[in-house]
Amino acid sequence: MLLAAPSFASAQLVAVSPAAQKYGEMCAGCHGVEMRGGQGPALADPTWLHGSSDEEVARSIRQGFRPSMPAFGGALSEPDIKALVDYLRETRAAKPMRNNTGLREAYEPTGVPRGVVRTERASFRVEKVAQVDTPYAFAFLSGNRILITEVAGRMRVVENGRLRPEPVAGAPTGVLAGLPRTNKRPLLDVITHPDYRINGWIYVATARADKPDATGEMTNLITISRGRLRGNQWVDGETVMEFNSQSTNALRMAFDSSRHLYIGTPESRRDHPMPLALSPAQDLASPWGKILRMSDDGRVPPDNPFLGRKDAYPYIWAYGLREPLTLAFDRTGELWSSENGPRGGDEFNHIRPGRNYGWPVVTWGHPYDARLQASNPEQPGVEPPVISFAPSPALSVLTFYEGDAFPGWKGAALLGSMKQMELYRVVLDGDRAVVQETVLRGVDRLRDIDVGPDGYVYLLTDSGFLIRLVPDA
Ligand code: HEC
User: How far is the CA of 288 from the centre of ligand 1 (A)?
Assistant: First the structure.
């Protein structure tokens, strides 16, 4: 049913030592298969927060960090810990990687399958289109151009298949200084207005440091701006809307056909107030953990569901979400989003106005620390997910396929992931997923997806590769 044994060069390069195996079993879930981070920091990052000497790294592993990383001193023997420390050190030295600030070091993706990938309803080849520094999103423009945002603050243009060497001049960059270490992404999502061919508007989300929250952690100020591209110059720039966000972990924008702009906001604190129902994602006065909805010039639409409530943040469309990293409309105009749960509990949700999606009260996930707490998957008044994933693939990209190049995929959701590095084809029948097929695996962490004017499926990977799936004739 799945891929007909495509060859993944990455798999061939990994020599599985006992320490590598331990890492894969016990650490990769949080720190990433390639140590490039996830729920835990990128261990291949050039900066250590808790010390880089062998003794300090061993102590990090032995003692853990409450509440976000368990202590492994009990589960691992001292020789095991020493082997892991060696493995971390050697992997760093052998494969220096880029951090979130977009610094380029020697890194090549290795997982692009050679030859034809055969799946149930389509056969395709994977082609590389362009390579940039750590990206967040891309959008198709007129004139055979593709706009790509690099998280460190540069907008790049691919024109007729070639990456322009110089970034877009005068474009919003966000502000890197002051953003927390795990969150160094001043430049985020980019999309075009539904009437882009007439009005030329391009929307972009940027971040800068805002005030600390109640627990003392830094938060972000997210700015939605719009502007137009003239040549390689950003012009007519203006701010559409600003709001405070816990982090930059899951900001994604989408337009509906009546030109309302939607944006998902994260709320993935580890130390929630008790009772959980008081958490920001459940608090209608907070913009965190929500899907927000606004007009294309940033005003509150008169039919937003909580306008009647004096204490509510008026932009809220739906609430109780953890990290709604994807957002897309299907052909009937229904809104869908996936979100990352904590250790289990990734959800694919049908988003309806005014509904509560449950986080952090109702989730299939488990807390990160070692507390014995059962997941609490159902509750009246809370929307159940259409699909709940376990283990968490870290869902990150979503589009509904409406092109002509893959007739067998028409109308299907293409849903992809970071940690699991997989792309799924999901066929929906109402609120039920009736088909779920993995159509691509192992290439890279997937960051963004869209269908090109040519009908090909374009994917942007976390290490900076814009690739596309081209049907095999
Ligand atoms: C449940 C998630 C989780 C698991 C599992 C996990 N870690 Fe961590 N780890 C974290 C988080 C989160 C941090 C950051 C803690 C902080 O800075 O407060 C961290 C920090 C670290 C650090 C310190 C990094 C620095 O910047 O100094 C090391 C080293 C580390 N982990 C190694 C490991 C190893 C080795 C394993 C497997 C045996 C492992 N971790 C398993 C979540 C995890």
Answer: 25
Please list, in sequence order, all residues whose beta carbon lies within 8 angstroms of the beta carbon of residue 283, skipping any fewer than 6 positions away: none
Query: Does residue 27 have its Cβ closer than 6 Å to ligand 1?
Result: yes
279: nearest Cα among 361, 382, 210, 366:
361
For CA atoms 73, 76, 77, 79, the dihedral sign is: negative
Chain center to CA of 175: 20
Whole-number pLDDT of residue 289: 95
CB of 75 sitting under 6 A from ligand 1: no
Residue among 58, 77, 64, 81 at smallest CA distance from 30: 64
- Atom number in ligand 1 closest to CA 52: 27
Pick from 444, 449, 438: nearest CA to 418: 444
- Could you tell me the two tokens for 67? 């509440």
The answer to whether the bond into 360 is cis (omega within 30° of 0) is yes
Question: Which ranges of the chain have pLDDT less than 50?
Answer: 1-15, 96-108, 366-374
CB 393 within 8 A of CB 443: no
* Whole-number pLDDT of residue 378: 64
Q: Which atom of ligand 1 is nearest to the CA of 50?
A: 27
Q: Peptide bond before 391: cis, by omega within 30 degrees of 0? A: yes
